[in-house]
């Protein structure tokens, strides 16, 4: 399942596939153990206490290891499938993943409670609740498998707005046009018309841009407001990317000078507007998974070595 699922398309494919496979395997061991234990207790009748004492060690080990693997690999898989904080909080996939994580945390707590009950040799009263939480985890996992992951260029940080600068000359008149952000949507045009002669033959009085979209569709004029010193500014909506034609009509001394220009409108930015944060989650979640794995290994080693040290410690009797 993990090979054909979302993990196979992740950037670090091998790590994502291994983590997804381990995640599914751990979930199967944990939920299978809970289900088997529930069936066994249902059929035990008067021997529930003996069954609890017999099952406590193997079940605690299997459930503990499975839940630990589930938590560590879950962080890795989440980093591979969810691009950013916005992807986590604003998409159905992200919200379902949050719900699944809450159920997993609840199941871990219930698992500890049931393990303590088994250790005391009593019937785990919360076993059915843990099984219900596990069923909820499976349901959430099925929804995630059927949903597109929350990643892609739309969740990247928006590209900064840049200006495309064009220039052409007609006689002594040099015309420079800057377009910002130079992508489909609202754009601002700034025009500078200056003469290369000193003194200029006449002051620049007005400027108008004429825009023709790619494919030769109907063009339109963009009126420009004077800013002083031969500068003008105005705005227009650009419908498409590609090569546009532009003519700047400059009025100087009562005469009009037409200056042709060609420029390319860049593709639209695929990124969504940022609601919370576009910071990638994968590095943070991978570090959290590594830290959690180290803590779990150290805790398991301490739990295994501690009793041996206690048993091996010599008993010193005080002389009377």
UniProtKB/TrEMBL annotation:
It is found in: Cell membrane. GO terms for cellular component: plasma membrane. The chain crosses the membrane at residues 20-44, 65-85, 97-117, 288-306. Residues 59-144 form the Copper resistance protein D domain. It holds the Pfam family CopD. GO terms for biological process: copper ion transport. Keywords: Cell membrane, Membrane, Transmembrane, Transmembrane helix. It comes from the Bacteria. It is a multi-pass membrane protein. PANTHER family: INNER MEMBRANE PROTEIN YEBZ (PTHR34820:SF4). This is Copper resistance protein D domain-containing protein.
